[in-house]
């Protein structure tokens, strides 16, 4: 219920073109999930070969990514994963493209890719799954031309949940990779 | 016969006695239908106001094991403190098979506990002993006596005078607090070993019970540390790039198996503790983690997803051969050997969620022994009778224990937030 109301208020915010993400943890996470999912599905913005945001201005993600192409670290710094999977969901490809663009144009910038899982399953095995997710992001960024020397992998497994709770909403918000610049 | 609790255990208790406590309590959740009735009569105190109820501690220990059903004190006609005072016929009428009587008296700065174990049906004394304990050691004395009673009746060495290590966690996201604790096996006398705002996990006792190896993220990267419990001294054993996880001592205490991802995927390595030489024992593009040594030190059990999902495999030291052990279901992980090496305890996923299971290595048969939906981190008591593990109660993590046959269980609730990652110590005396 809370989840939905977050999504609704975020959709409203997007429609008013108030794109700057709020800094409260919960809001950002809920919002970035729903917001990007809607955007990605609606516009098909997330072609993996898409290096820049030009030409896809109709999508809110494209706008957002475009505005942050050079100087600023992209606002969306968390992407989410399906249960037991490490593939990049198509709606998050634009987020990764934006980070790749930032890292390419800021050669001194370094980022730690922090991989996380939900709480289900054993801790050390989840440590390995979290590392897989972070590695999947790392590979994506490298294909986009980011230097490996700018990227570091840290898996936290299930040890640092974004939110507490043993329900599907909490699990979904905890299966993530965070860009820590 | 005079018995002193071994000096180093005393030193350990003394060392911990001044530090902060965060005790766990015990709630019996299931009693075994095969428990033997026993009466532990309140010990006479010679007019002393004792800091501990020794008979109650013994009674609780015996009940928790699942092997015994102690008689309610209300049902006792009288309270004999020596075998001479016992009217056996009366106790036979209460359907009691065994009984324990005793007396605690002041001696110097400490106490002397005299106790006797009686076979009620045979009207005979099985055991009689006198134990000295300092004031802070009364609980330790009660655990020692519990061990003697347990072994005398069952033939199995008692594991009440052992300890558990565990991790507590509070908060979420970037605002978390972690701590590593060591406590008596019944949750009392808990002492903080380490606290950190970064994750702590996978504590592992050295075979001599003096050290813990564990993973700490205190440098914002995982690293394996080895800490001496008596002195608090510690060393960083590994801090490679990537995962430094799942440390496991060899039975001789000279080697540490672990998972390292420095070469890509997590692989199992064996580190020689003295020389810091590493030997890599897995080599593939899959996850290999959660190693543990067989009691004879000849093989290493570990989790691998080389067949798709996580399953348990056994690597034989020397031959280097690896065989898959688990085939029931699509998720079997974090195995631990029973002390006799003939069965393993593991985390098994089924339609009922994640539960603790026991697999007999001879037949390959797997039996679920825990009852919740999110049970993990099994750790076996050194005598093999109980398995302690982490579970959920509401939204909190708590420790729970179940007898190896699944018949009896108890929980160790805490007011300290999430409690997880229990590790049962080896025998300490």
Automatic annotation (TrEMBL), chain A:
SUPFAM superfamilies on file: OmpA-like
Main location group: membrane
Gene Ontology annotations of biological process type: cell division
Native organism: Billgrantia montanilacus
Membrane topology: Lipid-anchor
Residues covered by the OmpA-like domain: 68-181
Protein name: Peptidoglycan-associated lipoprotein
Leader sequence residues: 1-20
This protein's UniProt keywords: Cell cycle, Cell division, Cell outer membrane, Lipoprotein, Membrane, Palmitate, Signal
Function: Part of the Tol-Pal system, which plays a role in outer membrane invagination during cell division and is important for maintaining outer membrane integrity.
Keyword Membrane set for record: yes
GO CC annotation: cell outer membrane
Stretch list, region Disordered: 25-71
Subcellular location: Cell outer membrane
Subunit structure: The Tol-Pal system is composed of five core proteins: the inner membrane proteins TolA, TolQ and TolR, the periplasmic protein TolB and the outer membrane protein Pal. They form a network linking the inner and outer membranes and the peptidoglycan layer.
Family label: Belongs to the Pal lipoprotein family.
CDD domains in the record: OmpA_C-like (cd07185)
From TrEMBL, chain B:
Localisation per UniProt entry: Periplasm
Cellular component aspect of the GO annotation: periplasmic space
SUPFAM superfamilies membership: TolB, N-terminal domain, Tricorn protease N-terminal domain
Record keywords: Cell cycle, Cell division, Periplasm, Signal
One Pfam family here: TolB_N
Cited InterPro entries: 6-blade_b-propeller_TolB-like (IPR011042), Tol-Pal_TolB (IPR014167), TolB_N (IPR007195), WD40 (IPR011659)
Any one biological process term the GO annotation gives: protein import
Signal peptide: 1-22
Domain of life according to the entry: Bacteria
Domain (TolB N-terminal) ranges: 24-125
Assembly description: The Tol-Pal system is composed of five core proteins: the inner membrane proteins TolA, TolQ and TolR, the periplasmic protein TolB and the outer membrane protein Pal. They form a network linking the inner and outer membranes and the peptidoglycan layer.
Homology family: Belongs to the TolB family.
Its job: Part of the Tol-Pal system, which plays a role in outer membrane invagination during cell division and is important for maintaining outer membrane integrity.
Name used for this protein in its record: Tol-Pal system protein TolB
Lineage: Bacteria, Pseudomonadati, Pseudomonadota, Gammaproteobacteria, Oceanospirillales
The gene coding this protein: tolB
């Amino acid at each position: 219920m809370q989840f939905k109301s977050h999504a609704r208020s975020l959709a409203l915010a997007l429609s008013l073109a108030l794109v700057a993400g709020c800094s409260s943890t919960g809001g950002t996470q809920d919002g970035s999930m729903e917001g990007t999912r809607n955007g990605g599905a609606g516009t098909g913005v997330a072609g993996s070969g898409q290096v820049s945001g030009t030409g896809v201005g109709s999508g809110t993600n494209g706008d957002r990514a475009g505005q942050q192409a050079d100087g600023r670290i992209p606002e969306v710094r968390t992407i989410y994963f399906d249960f037991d999977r490490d593939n990049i969901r198509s709606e998050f490809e634009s987020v990764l493209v934006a980070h790749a663009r930032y890292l390419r144009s800021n050669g001194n910038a370094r980022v730690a890719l922090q991989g996380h899982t939900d709480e289900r399953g054993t801790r050390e095995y989840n440590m390995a799954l979290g590392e897989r997710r972070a590695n999947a992001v790392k590979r994506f960024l490298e294909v986009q031309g980011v230097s490996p020397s700018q990227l570091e992998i840290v898996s936290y497994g299930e040890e640092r949940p974004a939110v507490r709770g043993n329900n599907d909403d909490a699990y979904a918000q905890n299966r993530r990779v965070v860009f820590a610049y | 016969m005079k018995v002193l609790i071994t000096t180093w255990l005393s030193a350990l208790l003394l060392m911990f006695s001044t530090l902060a406590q965060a005790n766990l309590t015990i709630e019996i959740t299931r009693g075994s239908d095969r428990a033997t009735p026993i009466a532990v009569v309140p010990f006479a105190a010679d007019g002393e106001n004792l800091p501990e109820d020794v008979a109650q501690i013994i009674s609780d220990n015996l009940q928790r094991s699942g092997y015994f059903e102690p008689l309610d004190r209300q049902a006792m006609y009288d309270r004999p403190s020596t075998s001479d005072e016992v009217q056996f016929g009366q106790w036979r009428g209460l359907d009691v098979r065994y009984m324990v009587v005793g007396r605690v008296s002041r001696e110097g700065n400490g106490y002397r506990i005299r106790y006797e174990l009686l076979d009620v049906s045979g009207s005979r004394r099985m055991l009689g002993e006198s134990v000295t304990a300092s004031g802070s050691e009364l609980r330790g004395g009660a655990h020692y006596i519990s061990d003697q009673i347990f072994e005398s009746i069952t033939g199995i060495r008692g594991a009440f005078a052992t300890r558990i290590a565990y991790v507590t966690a509070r908060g979420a996201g970037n605002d978390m607090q972690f701590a590593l604790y060591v406590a008596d096996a019944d949750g009392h006398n808990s002492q903080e070993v380490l606290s950190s705002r970064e994750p702590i996990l996978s504590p592992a006792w050295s075979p001599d019970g003096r050290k813990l190896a564990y993973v700490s993220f205190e440098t914002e990267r995982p690293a394996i540390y080895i800490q001496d419990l008596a002195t608090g001294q510690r060393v960083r054993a590994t801090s490679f790039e990537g995962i430094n996880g799942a440390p496991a001592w060899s039975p001789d205490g000279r080697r540490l198996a672990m998972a390292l991802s420095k070469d890509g995927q997590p692989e199992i390595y064996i580190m020689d503790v003295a020389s810091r030489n590493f030997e890599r024992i897995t080599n593939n593009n899959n996850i290999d983690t959660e190693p543990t040594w067989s009691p004879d030190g000849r093989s290493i059990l570990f989790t691998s997803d080389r067949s798709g999902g996580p399953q348990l495999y056994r690597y034989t030291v020397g031959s280097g051969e690896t065989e898959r052990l688990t085939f029931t279901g699509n998720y079997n992980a974090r195995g631990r050997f029973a002390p006799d090496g003939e069965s393993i305890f593991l985390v098994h996923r089924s339609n009922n969620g994640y539960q603790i299971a026991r697999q007999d290595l001879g037949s390959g048969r797997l039996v679920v022994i825990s009852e919740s939906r999110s049970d993990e981190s099994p750790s076996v008591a050194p005598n093999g009778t109980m398995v302690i593990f982490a579970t959920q109660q509401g939204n909190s993590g708590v420790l729970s224990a179940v007898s190896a046959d699944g018949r009896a269980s108890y929980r160790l609730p805490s007011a300290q937030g999430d409690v997880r990652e229990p590790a049962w110590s080896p025998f300490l005396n």
